[in-house]
What we know:
single chain, alpha+beta, CBS-domain, Histidine-containing Protein, Chain: A, 2 domains, about 20% strand, elongated
Amino acid sequence: MMTVGDVMTRTVVSVRSWTPLKEVAQLLIERRISGVPVVDDDGTLLGVVSEGDFLMKEQGARAVHHRPLARIFGESRASQSTMAKVGALTAGEAMTAPALTITSGRHISEAAAVMTARGVNRLPVVDDGRLVGIVTRADLVRAYVRSDEELAVTIREDVLLRILWLDPAQFTVAVHDGVASISGRVERRSTAEMVERAVGMVPGIVDVEADLSWAVDDSRGGPTSLDLVFPMSPR
């Protein structure tokens, strides 16, 4: 299936912790981006400086929400973080850390879920702690703009052969306007259901018309291990 690594941008604009905040602002404007990763010498991701961090600094002391009796008990961690951002002069002082990230091997639907839930437009892609790319909402949208022929090839070569270990020659696959039609015969009913679910998860497929027959009806048994990979949706 299509992963974050398949759609991410591998050449990433980044800054160091000591980069002056003014240079970071110029970079955001010149590149027309809303945020930039902060990395150390070996590419380890330290955090991200976003437009939100600049807006917080722009507000000054008004951005700091002091908790009750702060003079006695001290400021909360959130207030301390905001105060640091307000007085920040470098990327390291202004950045949000730890950064919200995703790994390159995750399915693009997971990246979409994180972006939607957290209200962000981009995610740094990190493998073994190091920045390897960045994925944006636009990258995820482009994953759906593929021809019917490309989608059919993906179903045969990626879904049936590589993921499900099934012989594509045993199936008839066609895609028209994003609607996948697949027919054939498998050994078990659970396998037929799995094929339909997996095809429906291919980015760019909007619906699945499955005509799959089976020799053994194993629907009364417990969930198989593959049910954990492709959980059934309520019908």
